[in-house]
Write a structure and sequence with these properties.
six-stranded parallel β-sheet; four-stranded parallel β-sheet; 11 helices; 10 strands; 13% strand; globular
Length: 321
């Protein structure tokens, strides 16, 4: 079933912030629950000049940049800062609800106080002095806990542009109709990250993980269509053909070679299976259905804390189960 996604708060225990949504765009009011702060207009930590500035250091590709923005935004919201973001930032290329800021990046002056995270996937508490009005924060900041009080806010800001949503919706409808004519279809996105992870000998899930994840949905639903998004590298696509397309259930490629369109289709399917990397993480965060993730992180990992990185409501499948 293909419908326009509803960009509402994530409903997980103790982190739920309800949304009272009537219109998309700047000015939507959030009704706050589970904490006592006053309700705010979404995007307020970037659109309202509070005369105290928090400046992110953007680096990496799309998933990394989204984490840096969301975490910096959440920290700024919690500590009464304004996030300073250039109007030329690439996030504006794909998302329509991030408020356009008219502050100059000169507010991030050379005399800014620097804060450096220790590890990218372990939540830290940063100390800010009232004596300083400008801070520059450096690091990948890959923990949902940095923006746990701004979940609905971030989901509203990371709404894909209408042109992207329209294209993806038509693609989903066409794929569902071609594979299951005249039937109600449950779509499940599959993100497959290989490429640089394989070259650098990092952890990647094997065929068995995807088979088990697919079977989870095949056991629950009829007429399941798996839609695979991976890199355009031929080696990666061949791996998907050999190990996912030829596995259980019906699977097709998304057909996109654009990062925003690929992420959008993974968020607009009914459910999603992620692999590794931040691109898949955000595909899970923005998807409104069941999220299955590759649960490879050991408890004693020195650079990963599972509880800081993985959303509690996601379903993890371990490599050895």
């Amino acid at each position: 079933m293909v419908t326009e996604p509803q960009y509402l708060a994530l409903k997980i225990p103790y982190l739920h912030r309800e949304s009272n949504i009537s219109n998309r765009g700047t000015g939507t009011t959030l009704t706050c629950t589970n904490y006592s702060d006053k309700c705010v207009t979404f995007g307020s930590a970037i659109s309202v000049d509070k005369k105290r500035y928090l400046c992110p250091n953007f680096e990496g590709r799309l998933g990394n940049i989204m984490f840096i923005y969301a975490s910096t935004y959440g920290i700024a919201f919690d500590h009464n800062f304004t996030v300073v973001v250039s109007r030329r930032n690439e996030l504006y290329e794909g998302f329509e609800n991030i408020p356009v800021q008219y502050l100059s990046t000169c507010n991030c002056s050379d005399d800014a106080q620097f804060i450096q995270e220790k590890f990218p996937r372990i939540h830290e508490k940063f100390n800010f002095s009232i004596k300083h009005t400008v801070y520059r924060i450096k690091g990948f900041l890959q923990s949902w806990k940095y923006f746990k009080r701004s979940f609905a806010d971030i989901k509203q800001q990371f709404v894909f542009k209408q042109s992207i949503r329209t294209k993806v919706r038509k693609t989903l409808q066409g794929l569902a109709l071609s594979m299951f004519p005249n039937k109600t279809v449950t779509t499940v996105g599959i993100h497959v990250r290989r490429g640089d992870f394989v070259r650098e000998h990092l952890v990647v899930p094997k065929k068995e993980y995807f088979d088990r994840a697919k079977q989870y949905f095949l056991n629950k639903y009829q007429n399941v269509l798996f839609i695979v998004a991976t890199s355009p590298i031929e080696e990666d696509r061949k791996w998907c053909k050999d190990h996912i397309m030829n596995g259980n259930g019906k699977a097709v490629f998304s057909g996109f070679n654009d990062r925003y369109e690929d992420m959008a289709i993974l968020t607009m399917t009914d459910h999603v299976i992620t692999s590794v990397g931040t691109f898949g993480w955000w595909s899970g965060f923005l998807n409104n259905g069941t999220v299955i993730y590759y649960d490879w992180i050991p408890k004693d990992h020195r650079r990963f804390n599972r509880n800081d990185y993985v959303i509690p409501s996601w379903i993890g499948l371990k490599p050895n189960t």
